[in-house]
């Protein structure tokens, strides 16, 4: 990877919880089902066997991806940010557009981004535009809908 995979402690815990659930719970049960189905004879028309093998491949792919992401993760605790007047990783920012519509966003790791919940990925265009901004700063960002200008109203770290 050419850039660090920043992630909050809560985001890392969520990745680890998913890994542990898949590896420690779902995968062993599936292997048991596949073994049982394989013992039933003809595998060509055995739905439990065919579906089980397919699902096992999906789980193994996901486990590999989670493992690589956790290995590359650089956990950053936003509450330990020294300069709280500027937008950095983990900041919760209130911004206003040209029409004075306000939005509250939190800059989080790309693996824990959820735009619907107001959490945007650290490497998204809007997050890149907001990096280093302070209250009152204007930032332009190129979005799919066109260029927009935002004013930073508030910056806080929780």
UniProtKB/TrEMBL annotation:
Domain Transcription elongation factor GreA/GreB C-terminal: 85-157
Residue span(s) of domain Transcription elongation factor GreA/GreB N-terminal: 5-75
Keyword DNA-binding part of the UniProt annotation: yes
Transcription regulation keyword on record: yes
A Pfam match: GreA_GreB
Signal peptide limits: none
Taxonomy, superkingdom: Bacteria
Alphabetized GO MF terms: translation elongation factor activity
Keywords: DNA-binding, Elongation factor, Protein biosynthesis, Transcription, Transcription regulation
Function: Necessary for efficient RNA polymerase transcription elongation past template-encoded arresting sites. The arresting sites in DNA have the property of trapping a certain fraction of elongating RNA polymerases that pass through, resulting in locked ternary complexes. Cleavage of the nascent transcript by cleavage factors such as GreA or GreB allows the resumption of elongation from the new 3'terminus. GreB releases sequences of up to 9 nucleotides in length.
Family, similarity comment: Belongs to the GreA/GreB family. GreB subfamily.
NCBIfam families: greB (TIGR01461), PRK01885.1 (NF002506)
HAMAP family on file: GreA_GreB, GreB
Protein name in the entry: Transcription elongation factor GreB
Organism: Sphingomonas rustica
Record lineage: Bacteria, Pseudomonadati, Pseudomonadota, Alphaproteobacteria, Sphingomonadales
């Amino acid at each position: 990877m050419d850039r660090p995979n920043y992630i909050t402690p809560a985001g890392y815990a969520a990745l680890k919880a998913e890994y542990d659930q898949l590896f420690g719970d779902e995968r062993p049960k599936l292997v048991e089902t596949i073994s049982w189905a394989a013992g039933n004879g003809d595998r060509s028309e055995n739905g439990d066997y065919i579906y089980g093998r397919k699902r096992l491949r999906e789980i193994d792919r996901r486990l590999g991806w989670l493992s690589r992401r956790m290995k590359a993760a650089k956990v950053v605790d936003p509450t330990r940010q020294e300069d709280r007047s500027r937008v950095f990783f983990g900041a919760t920012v209130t911004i206003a557009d040209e029409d004075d519509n306000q939005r509250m966003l939190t800059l989080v790791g790309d693996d824990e981004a959820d735009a619907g919940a107001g959490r945007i990925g650290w490497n998204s265009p809007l997050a890149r535009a907001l990096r280093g901004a302070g209250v009152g700063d204007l930032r332009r960002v190129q979005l799919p809908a066109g260029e927009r200008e935002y004013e930073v109203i508030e910056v806080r770290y929780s």
